[in-house]
Structures
1.
Amino acid sequence: MIGVFGGSGFYDFLDNPREVAVETPYGSPSAPLATGSFAGVDVAFLPRHGADHQFPAHKVPYRANAWAMKEIGVDRVIGPCAVGSLKREVAPGHLVVSDQLVDRTWGRDGTFFDGPETRHLAFADPYCSELRPLAVAACRSAGAETHDGGTVVVIQGPRFSTRAESESFAQSGWEIINMTQAPEAQLIRELELCYVNIAVVTDYDTGVEGEIEPVTHAAVLQRFNESLGTLREALAALIPEAAKTPRACQCATGMAAAG
C-alpha cells in the first residue's frame, strides 16, 4: 500500500474512498485515513493539516500521522506540499523533488525515541533514493517543469518569514521553504518507511531579489489549486511505479545501526 500525505488544498483524490479510524500510541492522527484505489493501486490518504485545515504546521500530530500510516500497512509514503521559492529560476508552478532539508523548527515531537530507549537516526539523505528518481520522471511525464533535487528549509510557522529571514535562507543557497517537511520526513524514516517529497512552488518568498509582494495563505492556496491537475497526473504515474518496484533501499533497514 502506498501512503499519501495531503498538502494545503489537496484533500480528495481517491476512487471509492473508505474512511478508516486509526488510534495510535501518540493520539489520533490529523483525520481518519481514507483508503481506496488510485491508478489501480491501494492507497491510504491522510490530510496532514486535518480535513478542515484545523492544524497549523506547528500543531500537526506528526507522530500519530506517521504511526497511522505504518499501522495500516503502508511501506512507501509520498508527501506533496506547497512551498515558496528562494531562487528566481525555481518559479511558481514548478515542481521540486527535494533531496535535502534544513530544520529550523522548534518544540515539535521529532522522534519516537524519547527515552528510556534512545536511538540515533542516520539522516544524511532524508529522502528515499529509490523513490526520488521515480518521482522526477513522473513529474516530468505530467508536463511539469521539474527540478531534480533542492534543499527545503523548514520554518516553524504559522507565520511566513520576515524579509531578513528569507534573504538569509536564500543566501545560504537553499531552494525552497516550507513548514511541514520536518519532522514528517524523519519520523517516517524512524518507522523504516520510504518517503519522497513533491513540492509545488506557489510563490517567490520575500527574500528573493527584487520587489516581491509578501506571500499570503490565500495566494498559496490559489496557486496550489491551479497545480492540482498536474500533481494528480504526476501521482498517477508515480504510484504504480512505486508499487511495483521492490524495496532495495536503506530506508527499510535504517534503524538497524541507530542504537
2.
Amino acid sequence: MSASPVIIATGGANLASLQFALQRLGYDAPVTEDRETITTASHILLPGVGAAQDTMKRLDEARLSSLIPKLKQPVLGICLGMQLLFSGSDEDSARCLGIIDGQAHRFARDPGLPVPQMGWNQLRLEADSALLDGVEDGGYAYFIHSYAVPPGSYTCATADYGGPFSAVVETSNFFGTQFHPERSSVLGARILDNFLRL
C-alpha cells in the first residue's frame, strides 16, 4: 500500500487549501479521480463544496460512487463530503453513498440564524474517537453549510445551530467532519494529523 494520502477530485474550490493544510503537516496528497491511485492510497480524503446531486453525478461518472463504500483504508469526508457518506440529502432529494444510514436536512428557517451557517462554532464531544485525540470540548471549528445530519449512533461530536447536529462522525473506517479542518486553525490541523496517523 502506498504511504501517500490522496484527495478525491470532487470539483470543490477548497481542494488547494486542503492540499496546503496537508503539506504543512508533511504530506503531499494528489487530487485524483483515478480508481487505482485511490485504491492503493494510505488514506482517502473526500472533500465537497456545492450541491450533493452534482457531486454525486461527478463521482458516478468517474465510477467512484461504487468504489468508495468498498474502501478499507481510512476515509475522511469533509463538509459536503461528510454528508455524501450518508444515505441521502434533502437537497434535490439526492441519493448519496449509503455508507452510513441517515439523511442530511436543510437548517430550519430562523430569522436570527442565517443559512448557510458561515463561521466559527463550538464542538461538543459526544463519544471517543481517534480523530478527536487531543481536541478539547468546546473548541471552535469553521463551518459553511446549509444542510446538516442529525445526531445518531455515528456521532462523535456535535455543534449547535438552532439545535444540535453532527459535527464529527465515525463508523468503521469512515470518518467525517461537517466543518472544514483545513480552515479551522490548530484544532483542524490536529484533526487532520490524527486522521493521517490512523
3.
Amino acid sequence: MTTTGSASTIANPSREIAQSGRLLSLDVLRGLTIAFMILVNNQGNEAAAYWPLKHAAWNGFTPTDLVFPTFLFLVGITTVFSTASRLARGATRKSLFLHVLRRSIILYLLGLVVNSFPYFHLHTMRFYGVLPRIAICYLIAASLYLISPGWRSKVGVAIVAIAGYWVLMRFVPVPGYGIPGHDVPLLDHDGNLTAWLDRQIFSASHLYERTRDPEGLLSTIPAVATALLGLLTGVWLRSQRTLAARVLGIASAGLSGVLLGGLWNPSFPINKKLWTSSFVLFAGGFSLLLLALCLVIVDLPRKGSTGPDRSRFLMPFFVFGTNAISAYVFSELLQSLFGAIHPRSNLNLQQVLYQSIQHIVSNQALASLLYSLGFVAVCWLFVSVLYHRKIFIRV
C-alpha cells in the first residue's frame, strides 16, 4: 500500500496527472470499466435485467461481454507505464520481475479469496476466475516486456496466440465428441476443447458452470493476446508522436479490430465465454475505440489549455480508477456477504433489498437496475474514503 499526493493534488486530478506525466483518460476509463463491471455483476434480479446488462447466452455479445476484456486491455497499457517509470527510477529488471511475480501471486490468491468468501470450502473452491486470469495474463505480458520492450516480438506472440487458439478450437478432435464442425457443432457448449480440458483438470464442483468455466485454462491463451494488445497500445502511447497522432492511430487500429472480428465471426463466432480469437479482435477494437474517445474528451482538451479545469466532472470515474482492484474485491466480498446473510429464513439480504425496491418500482428490470446502481454507489463510497485519505492500494 502506498500513500502519495498532497491535499491540493488529490482535489485536482488534472494537476496530479500532469505532474506525473500520466494520461488522465487511463484512470477515467479504468474507473468507468470497473464501475460497469460492478454494476453488471450485482443485479437485483439478473433474469429480469435489461439485455445490455446481461452476458450473451453463448455466441454473440452484449455491452457486458466487453467489460472484462477492456479491463485486461488496460492492464497491458499500465504495465508499460509502470515498468518504464520504475526503470527510470533505477530499478533493475531482476527486481521488477520479482515485483511482477509477487504481484501476480497476490492477485491470484485474492481471486481465491473472492471466489470462496465467506465459507472457503475446499471441495467447491473455484481456482479460475477474473482475478486469477488477470494475474496470469499480467505475469506473461509484463515478463515479455521486461525481456524486450520492443513491439515486434509482442505482435508475434499475439498473432501466435490468436491463430494458435483458432487452430486448436477448429481442427483438434475433442475426445469423446470428434472433430469440431464435422462430428460436433463448432463451439458446442460442452463438446469443445476448452470445456473438455477443464473437466479433465477439475471436477464439476470447481467449475463456474459445472461443465465448463468462462475463465478456463485453454482460453487464457487468447486472453494473453488481449493483454498484449493493451501492452502494444501502451508502447504506442509512449512514443514521441503528437497526442493527436497517437489518438488517430489508436482509433484506426480500433476500427480495424472491430471489422476484422466481425468478418471472422461467421466462421469462428464471437464468444466471450470461450474468449474466441474473433472476440479478441472485436473486443480489442472496441477497447481501442473507447480509449480514443476518452483521450479526445479528457486529454486532448487539457493539452496546453489554460482554461477552467473540467476534471471535476470526471471525479467519480477517476476515484474508481485509482483504486480499481480494491473496488472490485470490495464489491465481490460485499456481494458474497449479502448472499450469506438471511434476514428472512427463505431470503438473503440481496433479495430482501431488491424486493424492497420492487415494492416502490413495479418494473422488475428498472428495480434491478436501481439495486445495481445503489450497490455501485456503496462501492464508490468505500474507494472515495481511500482516495480522500490518499490511500492507493497497490498489490
4.
Amino acid sequence: MEAEIGVFGGSGFYSFLEDVEEVEVETPYGKPSAPVTVGDVGGKRVAFLPRHGRSHELPPHAIPYRANVWAMRELGVRRIIGPNASGALKAELELGEFVVCDQFVDRTSGREDTFYDGPETTHVSAADPYCPDLRSLLVETAGELGIKARDRGTVVVIQGPRFSTRSESRWFQEMGWDTINMTAYPEGYLARELELCYVNISMVTDHDVGVEGAGPVSHEQVVTVFNENNERLRELLFAAIPRIPPQPAEHLCATALRGARF
C-alpha cells in the first residue's frame, strides 16, 4: 500500500472518500495516532491521518508526532498538507479565513522534536520551514475557488492543552505574529528532517484572548467554527491535491540533509 501525498488533521475529512483502505503502520517511534486511511483524490493516492486520533483522544502535547510523520514516509509520501484549527492574533483576520504560513515560532516544551538523537550529529535548517511550491499552489487554488487564503504568515505554536493568558496573547501580537495553535510544531519540522515537503494551513477559528474585543477562547467555539468551515477546507484540498506534482529531486525540501551532518 503506497501513497504520494499525505494529509494530517482533518477529523472526518477522509469520510468524504470512497473505496478507502486502512493501513496499520509500525514505526521505530511506536504507533501513529490512528491507522492511516488511503484513498484516491483526482488520480492521486492520498494518505490521511487524524493527528488527534479517531475520537480526538490525544491532546496536542501527547500526539506521537514522530510516529505520524515516519508513517507517512513509510507509505511513500513525499508531500504533506497539515491543516490546523488556529486562533487569530490580528483583528483583521476573519473567522474561517485560511493563512498559508511561511514561518513558525516554537513555544512548546518537552516534545520529541527530532529524529536525530545521535550518534551522528545532524542540524537541519528551519530557516524556511514550509514548502514554497505547495504554499503557492494552495494560495493560487484558493483564489480560483473564491476561498479567502492569506499568503504568508507566522504561526506561534504553544504547548497546550491550556490556552494563552491575556498577557501572553498580547505579547504574541506585539511580536507581529499572525496565528496561534498547538499542533504545527514539531510536525512540519519533522517532515523537513525526513526531506519531505510540508505546508501549513492555519484555519482561523477564533480571535485569541489578547485581541481587542475578544473574550476567552473556548473549545466549543473552536470546534463550532471548524465544523462550519470544514467543507471549504475539503473543497480546497480536493481541488489542490490533483494538481500537486511529484517532489523534484533538486528541491529545498528534498535536499534538506545536504550539509546538515557533521
